[in-house]
Amino acid sequence: MNFKPIPNKFEYLNWQEIECVAKNKRSTVIWPFGAVEQHGPHLPLATDSIFVDEIISEVFKLFSADIPLKKLPTQYIGFSPEHKGFAGTISLSSNLITSMIKEVGSQLSEMGFKRLILINGHGGQISLLNTAARELRSVAPGMAVFPCFLWSGVNGLSELLTKTEIEDGLHASLAETSLMLALKPELVGDDRPNEGNKVEIPKGWSLEGNAPTAWLTDDFSKSGVIGDSRGANESLGKNLKELLINHWSELIMNLMQSDWPNNS
Fold first, then answer.
1. Is 81 domain-assigned?
2. What CATH number should be reported for the domain holding residue 223?
3. pTM of the predicted protein model
4. DSSP character string of 204-240
5. Among 49, 214, 254, 257, which residue has the least CB neighbours within 10 Å?
6. Cβ neighbours of residue 35 under 8 Å, at least 6 residues apart?
7. Would you say residue 261 lies in a domain?
């Protein structure tokens, strides 16, 4: 039986194919990051990982097979200490994740790859990946590194989600429950918690924002949910999915059509 590899999966190619791709002046690797952490009683532990893996896989379907863009296997286990009060959460240390990104990124740079996109689906490790990306650049200055958050900068979210959901629906709430209903409905339970979104915070401070606190989920939520998931539905999820795919396909294609940064 002849086996035809999936052209954009890094690990399915042979070393000669990788060597050829890396030589391209626009060679780019996408490395998705997620988490294995509690997402309430109704969503799977791998919610963030599933989201980023599914969206990027859909984005690849819009590109031609010969584009010099490859995807590393999604890093499912991430940095999730805020959820360690709940069974099922597995969290790696910040030092381990930073070291892993530096080691893998340095090797990609040595192969000749020009750009690395760290596309992250877990809000709790945004700052960590930003820091790791800067450290990677210091040891592999010839490769551009882009630490991105799946939900950041996506136009149209405010038309689909209320201000309350955008600001306070921090975890396993309306948006995440709806998106999972659109992607993998068989993994969604029947519960629709509404919890953890009415926290008394000193004036001017917030859970996340300009003056945040390093919160832990079990500070104010017994279910693990922060927000209101009661209105979740598949239709909203499909619209969110479309926004995410359109946003990232446009951004990635803009990058792939450019020579930035031109280090030659």
1. yes
2. 3.40.50.10310
3. 0.95
4. T-BSSSSSB----GGGT-SSS-BEE-TT--HHHHHHH
5. 214
6. 46, 47, 48, 49, 76, 77, 78, 79, 80, 121, 122, 124, 125
7. no
